[in-house]
Predict the structure.
Amino acid sequence: MERRSDGSLADILERVLDKGVVIAGDIKIDLLDIELLTIRVRLFIASVDTARKAGIDWWETDPALSSRAARDGLREENRRLRAELAELKPGDGDETQDRLERMRETR
């Protein structure tokens, strides 16, 4: 019996990345009809372009994965802190101290 190969591994990988593949599964652990644990696994394998077409682009906004997202987050925090500092006026006494304490607590 002869096996026929329709494509190389590279061809298959190219097709998978071009179209995308979804793998889904659930793992559920019950004890005496009481659900103890449920794990839902959803895996989407695709190229970046295919993922974007599907509306998936979380890696662009996650600061842990994107230096641009990290910079944007720092810029926003910097802008917010500058605005809060601009509101503080020297000589406001206790009110200024209260604001500074609240700012420290939110960090």
User: Anything to note?
Assistant: Residues 29 and 35 are 6 Å apart (CA to CA). Residues 67-87 form the longest helix (21 residues). Helices lie at 9-19, 48-53, 67-87, 94-106. DSSP finds four helices and two strands in the chain.
